[in-house]
Design a protein that fits this description.
34% of the residues lie in helices and 12% in strands. It has 184 residues and is α/β, with parallel strands linked by helices. Strands 2-1-5-4-3-6 form a 6-stranded mixed β-sheet. α4 links the parallel β4 and β5.
Length: 184
């Protein structure tokens, strides 16, 4: 059977490369070969890699889109994001983040999506391996939206109508004079 499979694979490769072959399939007299053509699956680039490629080429900001990562790990570019958004670096994701999400959900009466920007106003953009590591903390529990929006002004443009929730550390940084030309 392995020889038959090997011969059939070689014949298929030769045919795909438009190379003529007279390699017999090696079937028994009682066996027959049926060939069915099917279109190749559509190529779908990895949404995270597409987002990071836009960061590398300098196409960041509100108009460049976002990636929604569902609790099952499936990713899609764009899509509906509603309710409350809890932004952070989540390095690491901890109990305080979960409790804040629960409180926000109770107060807003809506679901919470975590937001992780791969671009930060104070740090270098996150590498793919680091983004995937941080995402793994949410798997099976929460949805995450990945953006290239380092500021809340850009986040607000991406998600109009959403309520943004922030932790204490982000609140302190958000009002720091250095982000406003040194002006209090």
């Amino acid at each position: 059977e392995e020889e038959v499979v090997s011969r059939l694979v070689l014949r298929a490769l030769a045919e795909a490369c438009r190379v003529q072959t007279d390699l017999p399939p090696g079937l028994l007299d009682s066996e027959s070969l049926e060939v069915h053509d099917a279109p190749p699956p559509a190529y779908r680039p990895d949404p995270l890699q597409s987002l990071l490629a836009r960061v590398e080429t300098g196409h960041s900001g509100a108009g460049s889109g976002y990636v929604v990562v569902r609790p099952d790990g499936n990713m899609s570019e764009g899509g509906q994001v509603q309710g409350a958004i809890l932004s952070g670096s989540f390095n690491p994701f901890h109990h305080g983040h979960e409790e804040l999400a629960r409180a926000v959900s109770d107060i807003a009466g809506a679901g919470v999506t975590f937001e992780l920007s791969v671009v930060n106003v104070d740090k270098a953009p996150l590498e793919e391996s680091e983004v995937r590591r941080r995402l793994s903390q949410f798997q099976g529990r929460w949805s995450v939206v990945l953006t290239m929006a380092p500021t809340f002004q850009l986040k607000g443009r991406l998600f109009p109508g959403c309520t943004f929730a922030i932790g204490w550390d982000t609140a302190v940084r958000l009002v720091h004079p250095r982000y406003y030309g040194g002006s209090a």
